[in-house]
Write a structure and sequence with these properties.
By secondary structure, the protein is mainly α. Helices cover 49% and strands 10% of the residues. It is built from five helices and three strands; from the N terminus they run αααβββαα. It is extended.
Length: 163
């Protein structure tokens, strides 16, 4: 038992160390996008794409937001009112209120659940229960046979269309 555990530990260590030796210059992390100069460059690229006027969403203070529709029909939001003197709506956001209103679910009335036929008839092992079970199984068999015939007709029609 001890030898098995020791051999498994050795195999795990070998599996963890081998990739470092297989890749040249020890650039395993860089190869998979972790660390190195390439990840620093990508972070700089992402920071360069972020607009400079974006502020954090969370705040301890109340924030005034202005909402208006520009000349192209696009709804605009800003912390400053529009310059052209268009009509706007001033909203005040408080950090102490919920942004989303609570959803009220309507109360459901309890519906009466239909009981299965098996329990209302009695025991399925009685002579009447067995007759009903055989009749039901024959009905299911007839339904399956009809479905098979319908599917074969559809398949034959498809094969005729291809020719």
């Amino acid at each position: 038992m001890k030898s098995t555990i020791i051999s498994m530990a050795i195999v795990l260590v070998v599996l963890m160390v081998v990739p470092f030796f297989l890749l040249k210059n020890g650039d395993l992390l860089e190869k998979f996008g972790f660390g190195g100069e390439s990840s620093g460059d990508s972070i700089k690229e992402l920071k360069a794409k972020v607009p400079k006027n974006v502020q954090t969403v969370t705040s301890k203070e109340r924030i005034e937001i202005y909402k208006w529709v520009d000349e192209h029909g696009v709804t605009q939001f800003s912390h400053t009112p529009p310059l052209e003197g268009a009509s706007f709506e001033k909203m005040e956001l408080s950090p102490n209120t919920n942004v989303i209103d609570a959803f009220k679910t309507p109360e459901k009335e309890q519906e009466e659940v239909a009981k299965p036929d098996v329990f209302s008839v009695g025991s399925p092992y009685s002579p009447d229960g067995m007759k009903k079970m055989i009749d039901d199984s024959q009905s299911v068999q007839e339904t399956l046979n009809q479905r098979q015939v319908d599917q074969e007709k559809i398949l034959q029609d498809l094969l005729k269309r291809k020719k």
